Amino acid sequence: MLQLDQVKTIAVVGVSENADKYGTRVYRTLKSRDGLNVLAINPKHKELWGDQVWPDLVATEQRIDLAVFVVPPGVGLRLLDDVRLAGIAAVWLQPGAESEQVIERCQEYGIECIHDACIIVDGYGMRFLY
Prior knowledge:
- The mean pLDDT is about 95.
- Helix 2 packs parallel to helix 3 (about 100-110).
- Helix content is about 30%, strand content about 20%.
- It has a single domain (about 5-125), classed as NAD(P)-binding Rossmann-like Domain (Rossmann fold, 3-Layer(aba) Sandwich), CATH 3.40.50.
- By secondary structure, it is an alpha/beta fold.
- The N and C termini lie far apart (about 30 Å).
- It contains four helices and seven strands; from the N terminus they run βαββββαβαβα.
- Strands 3-4-2-1-5-6-7 form a seven-stranded mixed sheet, with helices on both faces.
- Helix 2 links the parallel strand 5 and strand 6.
- Pfam families: CoA_binding_2 (PF13380).
- It comes from candidate division WS6 bacterium OLB20.
- InterPro entries: CoA-bd (IPR003781), NAD(P)-bd_dom_sf (IPR036291).
- This is CoA-binding domain-containing protein.
């Protein structure tokens, strides 16, 4: 079972240049937390706010403890093969990213799936900073 206090590297899938979008707000808020290595994932960008943005989870070539999905369920479903290829053990589906298909595919792949909760508020007990 996922222990957030043991998580060192988080990939946020769905970061964009729009500061008002939740993917960006989740990314920037998690980046403010000491001790976390937070990676931005979006194939449309190479850099945002001076941070490198990776096109996909496999391209990071880093050990990722948790992938946070802030994308529509159809996109998340397609990305689960990358989660498996990258050896990521857990996925957090932010509100709006969950679907029965995504949850079932996680179960099929043996990926722990957290859903119906916000990683910022429910996971870390933080407030959004942005």
